[in-house]
From TrEMBL:
This is KIB1-4 beta-propeller domain-containing protein. Residues 124-186 are annotated as: Disordered. PANTHER family: DUF295 DOMAIN-CONTAINING PROTEIN (PTHR40891:SF1). The lineage of its organism: Eukaryota, Viridiplantae, Streptophyta, Embryophyta, Tracheophyta. It comes from the Eukaryota. It holds the Pfam family Beta-prop_KIB1-4. Residues 37-117, 194-361 form the KIB1-4 beta-propeller domain. Residues 125-186 have a biased composition (Acidic residues).
């Protein structure tokens, strides 16, 4: 693939864009302070330096609106990279892991909601503090008794000092091992919670335990379709479910949409990834099943696609995707689609990223071509890749 670099005529910090097809955005550098936009249709990349993206990563996006998450804290906000408008989101817990995020619509749409999947680790810190306080109280109450006992035992303490020190060292080692085991046990206990709100309106997030809503403690994959949230839940039968968010009441309800699982080949392969993708132009919901191969089973080599029929309530196997190109970010479970008409994009193809590379899977020949779209991006340093679509 012949590439061209263009950064002389573009305004500093202003991102190039086209509404006709997705752009591949690569955030890279020590603090994610460098950005490279790659045009898959024109085989050209644009180097940028956008201050708002420094020390931030993109958690979700709708059109030109991005949900930005700080890489040094849990501060999150919405940012429009065309108008530079910013909407601060309510604070998230200081100690938590932001697992996933979705944005249903642009913030000026009355149906706009942002939802986070938050992981927090349960521990006994509060209980330990209470126990320490009780122990201190008991110690103060028994000070006089302890003083008398110490006077009587001073001689014996001198005789047994060496033995006591050995025993204390053994006990300290046992306590250290117990503390390590307790820390490992604490790490295994996690609470998964939905945090959601309407950006610009709510000053606090609504919170609801995932287990209480879907009967499971984890979300397999999810997406936005027609401004509603959909997810696949359950195992081994994976059911398409709609998540209905009532922002006024702060409640989430789950409604099963299908009675069958879309999974096709996972029982025969050790590695696979799933994607729920909304068609960007004809209102279809796709399920993309990626199958891996290779020594570590982490090299994508085959795809299967199904389309959901909302009238029949079932998944339909796609024998062809026609003049459509599907774009997915691997291993991040996000994606989009676009029409190949009037572009240089390949029809019947799936574009996906892996490492620094861009792969193109041909649906007809089942072959995969490989390119390095932006060779200046370091292989050794962290980088994030995102497919961005625009409505302008």
């Amino acid at each position: 693939m012949e590439l061209e670099e263009e950064n002389k005529k573009e305004k500093y910090g202003q991102a190039p864009y086209s509404a006709q097809y997705p752009w591949l955005l690569i955030c890279h550098g020590d603090a994610m302070h460098r950005q490279t936009f790659f045009s898959v249709s024109n085989n050209r990349y644009y180097k940028k330096n956008i201050p708002e993206l420094k020390e931030n990563k993109i958690s979700a996006c709708v059109d030109e609106w991005l949900v930005l998450e700080s890489i040094i804290s849990n501060d999150c906000y919405l940012w429009n990279f065309i108008s530079n408008e910013k909407i601060q989101l309510p604070p998230l817990p200081a100690k938590c892991n932001i697992s996933q995020c979705l944005l249903s619509a642009s913030p000026h749409d009355p149906e706009c909601l942002v939802i986070f999947l938050i992981e927090t680790t349960l521990n006994d810190a509060d209980t330990d503090e209470d126990e320490d306080e009780n122990e201190d109280d008991n110690y103060n109450d028994n000070d006089n008794d302890n003083d008398n006992d110490n006077d009587n035992d001073n001689d014996n303490d001198n005789d047994n000092e060496d033995e006591d020190e050995d025993e204390d060292e053994d006990e300290d080692e046992d306590e250290d091992e117990d503390e390590d085991e307790d820390e490992d046990d604490d790490d295994d206990v996690k609470l998964i919670t939905f945090y959601f709100c309407r950006p610009g309106y709510n000053t606090e997030f609504h919170k609801q335990d995932v287990q209480s809503i879907i009967g499971d403690s984890s979300i397999r994959i999810w997406t936005v379709f027609k401004k509603k949230f959909y997810t696949l839940i359950g195992w081994p039968n994976i059911i398409l479910t709609r998540l209905d968010l009532d922002n006024d009441k702060g409640k989430i309800t789950a409604t099963p949409i299908a009675n069958e699982s879309p999974v096709l080949l996972e029982s025969y392969h050790h590695f696979y990834k799933d994607y729920l993708i909304q068609s960007s132009f004809n209102d279809m919901l796709f399920y993309v099943h990626l199958v891996g191969n290779g020594r570590q089973f982490d090299i994508p080599y085959h795809f299967q696609v199904r389309r959901f029929d909302f009238i029949k309530g079932k998944w339909i196997k796609a024998e062809s995707i026609g003049e459509i190109a599907i774009f997915i970010s691997y291993p991040v479970k996000t994606g989009t689609t676009c029409s190949t008409k009037g572009t240089n994009l390949k029809k019947e193809s799936i574009y996906f990223t892996y490492g620094r590379h861009l792969y193109i899977y041909n649906w007809i020949t089942h072959s995969i071509s490989l390119t390095l779209p932006c060779p200046h991006v370091s292989q050794r340093k962290n980088h994030h890749m995102h497919w961005l679509t625009f409505n302008q």
